[in-house]
Each structure stands twice: as C-alpha cells, then as structure tokens.
Amino acid sequence: MIKKSLLLIAIVAIALSLFGCHTAEGAKEDITFIGDKTLEFVEKE
User: Average pLDDT in the 22-27 region?
Assistant: First the structure.
C-alpha cells in the first residue's frame, strides 16, 4: 500500500515538474531530483 502511494506521489510530482519546466535540461534535473528523493525515502522504509 505504501509503495502504491509513493508511486502515485512520484508520478504526480514528475508531471508537475514537467509542466513547470520550460527546457529539456530543467526537466532532466527535476526528474533526477525526484528520483533521488524517492530512492532515499524507499531505502528508509
């Protein structure tokens, strides 16, 4: 259940970061940041 919620949050965050980002480079940085934070959160569990 927690993993499904985490996945949903990550997808929403990625979608919002893509809409808020105007360049491909910025999108890459946003996705990398979100991925890193998601991994940190999962590893704590």
Answer: 68
Residues in the chain: 45
What gap in Å lies between CA 27 and CA 9, rounded to an integer?
A: 17
Centre a 10 Å sphere on the Cβ of residue 6 and count the other Cβ atoms it contains. Answer: 14
Closest to 37 (Cα-Cα) out of 14, 21, 4? 14
| Whole-angstrom distance, CA of residue 31 vs CA of residue 38 | 10
Mean pLDDT of the chain: 78
